[in-house]
Design brief:
By secondary structure, the chain is α/β, with parallel strands linked by helices. Helix content is 27%, strand content 25%. An eight-stranded mixed beta sheet has the order 4-3-2-5-1-6-8-7. The longest helix is centred in the N-terminal third of the chain and has 15 residues. The radius of gyration is 16 Å and the shape is globular.
């Protein structure tokens, strides 16, 4: 089952919809407190060797026309070697001014120091379906009601502490379960639709 992205774009704020695709521990962390991802990479590699393939990542990316990354996530991606986003516009959200570019033969990334700045860039490039990645970046876009669906691939480990894209002050974000798939290596992939993106960042009256 898919997430109905064309429908989701219409349900989100005008212009485009944000989509999340991340690997998490069973207790919901995307990295250890120091940003270490070895626990995720090793289990992902083992699952691929066992026949899990790319866990649907390429199919997900095929429906994406722009990307927003947090600065830390962007710097981690630079360390992977091959640039995974092709010709898609990429916006890096973070403080401290522009950092290194992705290299020769790759379109230059655009830099934004605030969520409204990133939204302005995405609107300007005519984005429709935006891949949002990075802990604080996902959290900010959720709070702003800019995320319409999430694909969470849980790996079988409890980290007990770490970086969460969902923890922090804010109201509940109601979700609708769209699909659940299991993969070799004990990985479980859950796809959710945000029930009401417009309300996700609104705090209830007390």
């Amino acid at each position: 089952m898919g997430t109905g992205r064309d429908e989701d774009a219409g349900r989100g704020r005008p212009g485009w919809a944000g989509h999340v695709y991340i690997g998490v521990s069973v207790d919901g962390y995307i990295a250890r407190p120091d940003g270490d991802l070895a626990w995720l990479e090793s289990r992902g590699a083992a699952a691929a060797e066992a026949g899990a393939g790319d866990l649907g990542y390429e199919a997900f990316l095929a429906g994406i026309d722009a990307v927003v990354l947090g600065r830390v996530t962007y710097e981690q991606v630079l360390g992977f070697g091959d640039w995974p986003y092709g010709e898609r516009p990429v916006v890096v959200l973070g403080s401290g001014g522009p950092g290194p570019g992705p290299g020769a033969g790759v379109p230059p990334v655009r830099w934004a120091t605030s969520l409204p700045g990133a939204v302005e860039v995405l609107d300007a490039v005519g984005a429709r379906h935006v891949y949002v990645d990075g802990g604080a970046t996902i959290r900010s876009f959720l709070d702003a009601g800019r995320i319409t669906d999430l694909v969470l691939t849980r790996v079988p480990v409890l980290l007990r502490e770490g970086i969460s894209p969902f923890a922090g002050a804010g109201t509940d974000v109601p979700l609708e379960l769209v699909d659940v798939r299991s993969f070799p290596g004990g990985l479980v992939q859950e796809t959710y639709r945000v029930a009401d993106p417009h309300r996700a960042g609104h705090r209830p009256h007390r």
